[in-house]
Amino acid sequence: MKRYCKNIKLDADWIKAAMLECLSDKWNRMDVAGFLAGYTENTTKRELYRQIKADKSVVTPLIEKAAAEMAQEIATRNVTFPAISYSMRYDGNSGKIREIGVESIKQQIYDYVAVNALMELFERKIGKYQCASVPDRGQVYGKEAIERWIRKNPDKARVAAKGDVHHCYPSVNIKKLMRFLVKQVKNDELLYLVETLLKSYRQGLSIGSYLSQWLCNYFLSFAYHYAEQELYKVKKKKNGQTVRTRMITRQLFYMDDILIIGTRKADVKRAMQMLITFFKDKLGLEIKTNWKLFPIDYIGRDGKHHGECIDMMGYKIYRDHTEVRRNTFLRARRTFRKAWKQIRKGMSIALLIAYRCISYYGWFKHSDSNYFKAKYEIEQLMKYVKRRVSIESKIHNRTAGSTLAAA
C-alpha cells in the first residue's frame, strides 16, 4: 500500500505558513492578540490589539517566535493548548441543536498545520463527489452534478436512495480513524500531532473544528469508494460466463448525507443495503433507518411531474428546474421584505439585514427563481444592499484608522 506525506517537515517555516493562513481573516479578534501576547515580555493583549490595528507588521517577530516554539513542541512530543469549550447552538439550515466545540487560537493553528500536511492524502483519497468542506466542492457543486446526472442521462437516473449517518461526527471511532492514518501516512511527527488533536475532542470528531471537517470526509471516503468500485451484482449467462453489472450509476456524499442513483429499484435498494452494512461493519457508523428509496422526478406523457425530487444541500432538484428548499425560501423572503420596507421608509438598511440579504441571494442565484427575483426586485435590492455594506466598511476602516492615529 502506498503511503503519503513522508516528505513533509513540520518545521518553523511550515508552521508559519499555516499560521498566516489560519489568522488571515482573524487579525481584528482579541483572542488572536491574546495568543500572540504570550510571545511578548510585558505587552498585554489589549495593548497588542491596538498595535495590530495600527500596524499589522508588529506581529511579524511574534509569529516567527510562535512558529519556532510550536515546531519545538512537535519535535519534542510536547504539544499543549487550552481545552476546547463546548456550547449548544441552533443550526438554522437543519433546525437542529448541535454541540459546537470552540478551540483556542493555538489549536486552530495546529489544525491548519495538520490539514496542510495531510493534503496529499486527502487529494488522493477523498472522492470526486464528496462535497462540503472541500474548496470548490460545496452545495452548488453538488447541486450542479445532480442536475447533470438526471437531465442529461435520464435513463441512467431513474431511481435514487437517500440517507444520512446518525450523529456522524461524534460517532466516528478515533482509534479506527488513527489505524487508517497509520497505514496510509508515513510521517511520525504528523501522526503524533493528529493523534494529540483527536484526543482533545470530547467524543469522536468535534463539530466546528477545521481538522474534523477534513478527517470526516477522509473517513467516509472508504464508503464512497466502496460504492464507486464494489457495488456490483454477478449474473451467469446460459453459456456459463459470469458478468458483473453495476448496481448504481452515481453516488454523492454531502458530508454525512448519502445519495446513490441507478436505473432499477431492486438494484438501488440492494446497493443501499450493502452500503449500510459496510458503514456498520467497516466504519462503525449507522445509517438512519428512515432512509428513502424513491423514483426520481420525471415528466410523464400527461405533462405532469411524477416521482419525487431530490431534496439535498438546501435545494429541491427536479428534471426541468431547481427550487430553493421551503424553509430557506420563507426566511429569505421575510428578510428581503424587511429590507425593502426600510428602503421605502427612507431608512438606511440595517447592517444585519444587509448581510442576511447577501447570504440568501446565493440560493436564488443558483436556482430557477426568476419569477421570485422579478416579483421582489431582488437584483435592484442587491444594489442597495451592497452599497450599504460597502459604505459601512469604509466608515469602519476610516474610524479605526483615525482612532488609532490619535492614540
From TrEMBL:
Coiled coil (residue ranges): none
Ranges of residues in domain Reverse transcriptase: 68-317
Record SUPFAM superfamilies: DNA/RNA polymerases (SSF56672)
Protein name: Reverse transcriptase domain-containing protein
